[in-house]
What we know:
336 residues, alpha/beta, two-stranded antiparallel ribbon, globular, disulfide bond, rSAM_sf, transferase, Methyltransferase_A
Amino acid sequence: MRVTELRQRLQALGAQPLHLQRVLREWTHALPPDAHKRKNDDFLPLTLRDALPALRAELAGLATLREQHPGEDGSSRLLVGLHDGQAAEAVLLPRDGVCVSTQIGCAVGCAFCMTGTGGLVRQLGSAEIVAQVVLARTLRPVKKVVFMGMGEPAHNLDNVLEAIELLGTVGQIGHKNLVFSTVGDERAFEALPQGRVKPALALSLHTTKAALREQLLPRAPRIAPEELVERADAYGRLSGYPVQLQWTLLKGVNDGDDELDGIVRLLAGRRMVLNMIPYNSVPGLPFERPSWEAAADIARRLHRRGVLTKLRHSAGQDVDGGCGQLRARALDGVSV
Ligand code: SF4
């Protein structure tokens, strides 16, 4: 279901803007149906009031909790059941964040990613994307939403932007706390500046070498790393939020001195943050995780050369490796 469709259905039931606001607020904030005093329901049109119980049940069925795997770092990996039997992954992050999926599977096919190995299965509707946040809000407060789970948000742009708009308005998530993540796509660079809600941007760069990037991200748009950084930085200046560059650190692949020189060259004078995340091994894939000490040394060296670098653990890595593994195991019928 799309949010636009939900709005249209509510309007067809007689909802005026104030009524729409009320129903969408109740949903996006995961408020129990009795959160509003009964007498306040009286101001809703009768047809809408009559239809609300079934509609609430339908919305609650958009994303249901199938499995929850708490990690030692305060995060918790969720396997989210969808209405058609498919499953998406979401992660409750420390400090009131949630990472949500935007697609089932992914067509980018990153060589180091479990989700990418199976290709795209289907798009998530904007209401299914919002529903993951609603589900998270039934478990803990949510003040930040990152679109970094399964899928490439730029490949499901209309639905992701619709979800962002709702979460950034009625859902009351601060715009800089909505983080649109992309491998870099012309359509996203064009659409993001037009939005009423302008999210923060995370660009998955992973290497400064165009040829290596084509190997690692085989079906990402062929845009040179220099141009990607420039396009992302232009949006960062417009939105006012520094762009985050994502770098999955692969031992012996993108952790050499040549890459460090490339990073310094590309980021010189820019207000960007480099997030380095040591790779979590995925069974069957040929990449290795560098030691934490080696990764920390790289981060220190970049810092000394003027690049704001943050070394991060992947959330919940003690529970499972990277995104896509909970779903893969569920499909195999293996319990984790
Ligand atoms: Fe898709 Fe992200 Fe996995 Fe790449 S890392 S295949 S963009 S889900």
